[in-house]
Amino acid sequence: MEITNVTEYDAIAKQKLPKMVYDYYASGAEDQWTLQENRNAFARILFRPRILIDVSKIDMTTTVLGFKISMPIMVAPTAMQKMAHPDGEYATARAASAAGTIMTLSSWATSSVEEVASTGPGIRFFQLYVYKNRKVVEQLVRRAEKAGFKAIALTVDTPRLGRRESDIKNRFTLPSNLTLKNFEGLDLGKMDEANDSGLASYVAGQIDRTLSWKDVQWLQTITKLPILVKGVLTGEDARIAIQAGAAGIIVSNHGARQLDYVPATISALEEVVKATQGRVPVFLDGGVRRGTDVFKALALGASGIFIGRPVVFALAAEGEAGVRKVLQMLRDEFELTMALSGCRSLSEITRNHIVTEWDTPRHLPRL
């Protein structure tokens, strides 16, 4: 059966993967309300397309932190990709590079920063969890910098791991043939079996709950790389992030895997964008499955989006070719959405091209 959209990879991944692995990638926290809402909220935003504009040439290129990319669609950090496919992060890195876009490597990757760098050229960011042992953090950041990574995406929404009930039921742990490659030499690469989720126990033991804004400033003393703060959902925190020296903000609810009943990222986006007043770029991850979703995020002020689950599901289904196809399908859909909305470049996508449920009634069509 021919795959015609990104979501179709989900069912194939579910068929192919062991239940423990599929559930780890697919599930959200607790009631999974936010998991559903990340998708549903996109469906409540409608288009106001402009017609009779020459859309014979469409330019989707953009720059992120000064790096030119082919489209505003990037790869979010997702952990332990070799559980999905033997090539894991290698395949994802090659696919992102071929698409001319950015890959973010997870701290908890099953391939190291050096291994991913060895796949060839490409613009890559490194997602960072701050461990209790700050020497480990320093070492990791230096390794990422040395391996040519261009930015640090600091995850700030995980002082503790969210309650993911399928991981508890499945007694989730990293399969014994794999390690968290970046920590292999530090005796932090293995995850023990636990009475609940092995990952939750690992986080409780290793990740620093005292993490605060002063650590964002500390991070800037150990690296010259720009820091993106990943996990901002309010205007208040967006303002503090800028004061703390963040080079950019990623509006993220961690794929709905942390605190349930936070809003969908697309619903939180505009508040964050307004708070930044254009001082730093704002990105979004969470729930993007269509080119129309990408357009909606940009119309609400995002400079680009990141995709997570679509990458691991496609990786499970078809390896590198699957990830390439996901990026290509989203690109093609986004280009079509731009054309049908009357936008020839990203700068032409405006707030007036969409209508949301929170807009004033003058925007709404009379029923």
What does this structure look like?
With 367 residues, the chain is of the alpha/beta class. The chain has 13 helices and twelve strands. The strands form three sheets. An eight-stranded parallel beta sheet has the order 4-11-10-9-8-7-6-5. A two-stranded antiparallel sheet has the order 1-12. A two-stranded antiparallel ribbon has the order 2-3. Helix 11 (265-276) links the parallel strand 9 and strand 10 (282-285). The longest helix is centred in the C-terminal third of the chain and has 33 residues, at 309-341. The model has no long low-confidence stretch (mean pLDDT 95).
Describe the structure in brief:
It holds the Pfam family FMN_dh. The protein has 367 residues and is α/β, with parallel strands linked by helices. Helix content is 39%, strand content 12%.
Strand runs, count: 12
pLDDT < 50 stretches: none
Terminal CA distance: 40 Å
User: How are the strands of the biggest sheet laid out side by side?
Assistant: 4-11-10-9-8-7-6-5
Q: What summary fits the major beta sheet?
A: 8 strands, parallel
* Strand content bin: 5-15%
The H/E string reads HHHEEEEHEHEHEHHHEHEHEHEHE
Oligomer: single chain
Taking Cα atoms only, what radius of gyration do you get, to the nearest Å? 20 Å
Question: Portion of residues in helices?
Answer: 25-40%
Shape: globular
Derived structural class: alpha/beta
Helical stretch tally: 13
Estimate the mean pLDDT confidence. Answer: 95
Core attributes:
single chain; 367 residues; alpha/beta; eight-stranded parallel β-sheet; 13 helices; (S)-2-hydroxy-acid oxidase; oxidoreductase; Alpha-hydoxy_acid_DH_FMN
